[in-house]
Amino acid sequence: MAEFQITATTRTEFGKGASRRLRRAGEVPAVLYGHGTDPQHIALPGKETFLMLRHANVLMEITVEGQKERIMALPKQVQRDPITSFVDHIDLLIVKKGEKVSVEVPLTVVGEAERNSLVNIDLTSLLVLAPATNIPAEIEVSIEGLVIGDQILAGDVKLPEGVVYEHDPEAMVLNVAPQPVAEPAPSVADESTAVEGEQDSEDSE
């Protein structure tokens, strides 16, 4: 998993107006919570935060100005502007080494199935329980050698060491189906015959 260090400042103003001012200044409002601590309202540097969130399940090591202890956290909820995709707000879950957390991990399909087949993908991620400091960036699903009629369920996916399923094991991940056959386009001769038939019908009237 990707790990990043970042410095945050404590927020002293709250509400929509204060959040807008922060975003205009290039910062992102966020809240740290978990492990029985009181929520901490902080501000993160916008550009660094945007780049970090390009990685799935990124582990953030946060230094809050004025505090000695570094805080490890995972983004649990990210709110974005629907037009610009700029990060509006982040909820950060405090984690500790040795504990496991419930996370969605992206699935990556590798390999090739039977020729002239179509792989229908139903799930693009799996809900798993993974070590907070060692969450897999992705989980590979191999379709090498699969033939038409084969399918892969969530319980068939091989997980990395230390990771366990939280997903329904019977959930469909993907299946292999016949490739659709395109309807043949009408030939010029067929079109000509059809036109002649229409003309004969008109003449008989």
From TrEMBL:
Matching SUPFAM superfamilies: Ribosomal protein L25-like
Gene Ontology MF term list: 5S rRNA binding; structural constituent of ribosome
Domain of life: Bacteria
GO cellular component, one term: cytosolic large ribosomal subunit
One biological process term in Gene Ontology: translation
Biological role: This is one of the proteins that binds to the 5S RNA in the ribosome where it forms part of the central protuberance.
Protein family according to the UniProt entry: Belongs to the bacterial ribosomal protein bL25 family. CTC subfamily.
Subunit structure: Part of the 50S ribosomal subunit; part of the 5S rRNA/L5/L18/L25 subcomplex. Contacts the 5S rRNA. Binds to the 5S rRNA independently of L5 and L18.
Protein name listed in UniProt: Large ribosomal subunit protein bL25
